[in-house]
Task: inverse folding
């Protein structure tokens, strides 16, 4: 008898992006997923692991990360075995990362269902999360590429949205719909109509699919990329051939987000199912959302991050991140963002938090890579 | 034949105040007068010395400062002789500081005219300054307590004002008037009427008088304080008696600003003359004025202080003071004040710059004196 879907489930955690919009907290050598951004006392990566382990089992979580982060990742996840860590020699975007995991796991275990979850998002409501994943796994078992969309609680302009189409009747999958379209970050008025309409969900970048189905979609849209990944996966589990194969294949793989290579094309062909998730989710994309997260969404309050922060605030709101051992004094600054690290200081406002990435680019061009 | 008035002139520089409103730039061990706040390449104290030396001669400048600052002051002013430095064991406000200088100098040189000028103000227009001092010295020679008032160029609310009375005809003293009243920092509407009326000058805290006249005024208003200063001065120039006299007398002297002990009472008795100064002057009382000073008063610009400042600004105005070796990034912050030092960081706005002093007090009460 075939195993129940959740028994064939494997979690994949791509731990890649630096999180430039959270500079100077996030750095090339200390990316966002290695930070505690919620005051939980552990990193976002560890939070992600702890959320997934009860679903797939801790022996069935694969982490795809950069070679430079190997030691830090292994320190966070001592349970992670060598066979479950995939090291990238250089970043090639999410299709290569998740596609390689899919190809490796499908070779090892045909019929495996994989679920990919970012290493640096914040989720609360574990039970609701598990329910959504369980539904998504059922949809995956039925042949869909599944994603989990988050029910909006406000007209957010910092997220992409998924427009739900007709409801899908899939055994074991509650709250499943077809997807009419993916939409990029909207303006505020559009986001308000989405919130009122009730048909749009936040795109949380979670993809759950049978590995063979995911590879099949990819073969259709990006045959060269697919071929490269399958070829690399064939050499992966032999220590003698993996290294040369990586050197030969990886640098030439197309850089493309899995949203464009798999999810959107599958949606157009009616092969994407979205599960409506009711848990709280945030991608903590910038300091404005970090501030909101740490003041429980209340404006006019000041969030303070930093274990030994010495902050004196007089009529101040926003967020202060203290990573240098200094007294920080704020007077009469509203919605301020102050990030204090030993070699770099950022002062901006919630309103301008999205522009941090552009400034990081300017610093790189300006020869200040030492602080990036 | 009696010497010409300017030949009897002695400059006195009280170098006392920390400048709390400029914390964390100004500190107990690095007060405002030891900073270069104009980008001139030298400290305000040295600027003050250089401004006065052509008037009184560098052998005739007395500096009154705290014992803790002796080494720093002497490093700034290598020309300063031992007999011209008066060290306070503890601060006792400006009447004690200037009164002691007056009493010492009057003993050494009866008939001396002294002029007291703060160590931490910024002045440009040296020729106009010298003209004003020369007039003030002439008024002092004629028996007046003289002060120099600055012709306002804007409705400043951060300064006290001197209201001019009738013009005074004093040989050698141009633009001299009696003083109708001293007024504290006004509100903006009042400051506007002062500016339009043309009869109010900024109180720059400059006092010029014959030492015997100044002491005579003080004897009338504060006889105990006067007696203590005269007694201390009598012991001053004997190394054997100075120390014990300081220990005995100094701690008991009343703390009072010379404005209240001498200037205002003299004004009421028609014995104060104000000379209208046309030079540019600023007491650099807070970061808002420091910002203005370093952007030539243009709003919407960003002043950057710090020799090796690495500042990246995107849509930012105000002032950033860089005293720690860090990259400072400002995005979308207007009229901001960022002061970055190795152990303390201040973020506020020009509008709230006056509140820095209150925060310094709060830090002291809160046990953070290590950064004050």
Result:
């Amino acid at each position: 008898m075939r195993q129940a879907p959740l028994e064939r489930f494997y979690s994949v955690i791509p731990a890649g992006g630096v999180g430039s919009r959270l500079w100077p907290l996030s750095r090339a050598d200390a990316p966002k997923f290695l930070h505690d951004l919620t005051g939980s006392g552990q990193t976002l990566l560890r939070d992600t692991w702890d959320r997934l382990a009860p679903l797939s089992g801790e022996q069935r979580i694969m982490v795809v990360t950069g070679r430079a982060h190997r030691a830090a990742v292994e320190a966070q996840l001592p349970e992670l075995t060598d066979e479950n860590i995939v090291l990238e020699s250089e970043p090639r975007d999410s299709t290569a990362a998740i596609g390689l995991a899919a190809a490796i796991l499908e070779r090892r275990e045909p019929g495996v269902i994989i679920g990919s979850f970012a290493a640096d998002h914040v989720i609360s409501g574990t039970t609701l999360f598990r329910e959504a994943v369980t539904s998504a796994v059922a949809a995956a078992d039925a042949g869909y590429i599944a994603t989990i969309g988050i029910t909006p609680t406000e007209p957010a302009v910092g997220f992409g949205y998924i427009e739900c189409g007709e409801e899908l009747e899939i055994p074991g999958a509650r709250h499943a719909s077809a997807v009419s379209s993916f939409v990029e970050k909207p303006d505020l008025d559009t986001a308000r109509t989405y919130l009122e309409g009730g048909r749009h969900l936040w795109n949380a970048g979670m993809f759950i699919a049978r590995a063979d189905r995911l590879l099949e979609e990819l073969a259709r849209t990006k045959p060269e990329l697919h071929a490269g990944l399958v070829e690399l996966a064939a050499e992966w589990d032999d220590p003698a051939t993996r290294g040369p194969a990586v050197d030969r294949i990886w640098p030439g793989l197309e850089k493309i987000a899995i949203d464009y290579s798999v999810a959107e094309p599958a949606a157009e062909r009616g092969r994407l199912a979205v599960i409506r998730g009711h848990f709280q989710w945030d991608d903590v994309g910038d300091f404005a959302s970090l501030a909101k997260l740490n003041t429980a969404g209340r404006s006019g309050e000041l969030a303070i991050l930093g274990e030994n922060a010495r902050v004196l605030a007089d009529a101040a709101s926003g967020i202060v991140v203290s990573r240098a051992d200094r007294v920080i004094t704020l007077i009469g600054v509203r919605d301020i963002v102050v990030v204090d690290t030993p070699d770099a200081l950022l002062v901006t406002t919630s309103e301008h938090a999205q522009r941090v990435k552009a400034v990081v680019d300017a610093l790189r061009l300006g020869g200040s890579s030492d602080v990036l």
User: Anything to note?
Assistant: The radius of gyration of chain B is 21 Å.
